């Protein structure tokens, strides 16, 4: 997702759900500012998690990887406007401000808000008002045309990766689990490449045969690695492919699709979708090593360019290994 220009605290708060993909609840949001007023990366963390003693330093270190010019801090909490304590979590804000200053990052603005929906209340130390409707922004309109959805909560976003029809997903188990169902190397690569080619043309899998063929293709490590490389090359077109496959396959087969959806989401600026996709992969196949490695990378706020280079390096290593064999 491209950097977004915001003017003032109210506009920043209204932009948060558009950039995250959902309306957050009782959380801390850090926005990196580049140039005059462009918000690039967002870090989102539960407010209680952010209050841990070491959390502020970890958050600043993670954000610093994206080399922000300045920092915006938003405290989203419906308890913000308790008359006895109008701006909560001041100790957390102070720790973040100090940590940012030590890292050479200026905190441009801190804003407290009761929520991110239309008519929620926001305030700074010297101003206050109501949040404008996030749906009315030019950003929201342009992303809606592109098919972007803003969910009412993180739970709703996570639910969007679950099967529309659990019985249909479960019915594919016999086809996926047949002893003779495994594809050889060439068949796996062909299945993956064909599905991705069709996705770039706007055609997603629709039939049981489509879903099963692609699920089998990803079972083969070479098919999975091919999908990973092609996802990095075209994350925008492949994201919906892997989301649709995650929703269509039962566990444990959906784990590999969910990991690919996470990579595509992360590379297109949808960190929250990447996060819930990895959670879906973990539920489907807890021992899946690639999901654990990506979780560690995402938790450390790896820059998308670093992720691309890492996957490209893995691709070259695999190619060299094949040549040696």
TrEMBL record:
Judging by the UniProt lineage, the source's domain of life is: Bacteria
Q: Where is this region: Disordered?
A: 161-181
Under Pfam families, the record lists:
DUF4192
Full protein name? DUF4192 domain-containing protein
């Amino acid at each position: 997702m491209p950097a977004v220009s915001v003017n003032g605290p109210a506009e920043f708060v209204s932009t948060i759900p558009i950039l995250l993909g959902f309306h957050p609840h009782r959380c801390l949001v850090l926005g990196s500012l580049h140039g005059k007023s462009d918000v690039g990366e967002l870090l989102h963390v539960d407010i209680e998690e952010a209050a841990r003693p070491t959390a502020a330093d970890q958050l600043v270190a993670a954000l610093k990887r994206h080399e922000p010019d300045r920092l915006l801090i938003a405290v989203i909490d419906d308890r913000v406007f308790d008359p006895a304590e109008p701006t909560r979590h001041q100790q957390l804000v102070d720790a973040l401000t100090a940590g940012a200053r030590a890292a050479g990052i200026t905190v441009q603005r801190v804003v407290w808000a009761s929520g991110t929906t239309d008519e929620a209340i926001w305030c700074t130390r010297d101003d206050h008002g109501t949040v404008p409707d996030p749906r009315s922004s030019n950003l929201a309109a342009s992303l809606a045309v592109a098919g972007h959805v803003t969910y009412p909560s993180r739970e709703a976003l996570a639910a969007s990766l679950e099967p529309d029809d659990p019985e249909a997903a479960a019915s594919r188990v016999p086809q996926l689990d047949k002893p003779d169902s495994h594809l050889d190397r060439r068949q796996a690569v062909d299945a993956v490449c064909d599905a991705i080619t069709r996705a770039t043309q706007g055609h997603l899998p629709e039939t049981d045969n489509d879903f099963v063929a692609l699920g089998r293709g990803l079972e083969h490590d070479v098919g999975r690695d091919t999908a990973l490389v092609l996802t990095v090359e075209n994350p925008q077109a492949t994201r919906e492919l892997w989301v649709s496959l995650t929703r269509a396959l039962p566990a444990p087969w959906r784990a590999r699709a969910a990991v690919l959806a996470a990579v595509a989401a992360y590379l297109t600026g949808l960190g929250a979708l990447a996060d819930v996709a990895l959670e879906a992969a973990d539920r489907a196949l807890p021992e899946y090593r690639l999901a654990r490695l990506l979780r560690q990378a995402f938790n450390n706020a790896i820059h998308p360019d670093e992720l691309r280079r890492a996957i490209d390096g893995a691709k070259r290593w695999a190619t060299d290994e094949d040549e040696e064999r």
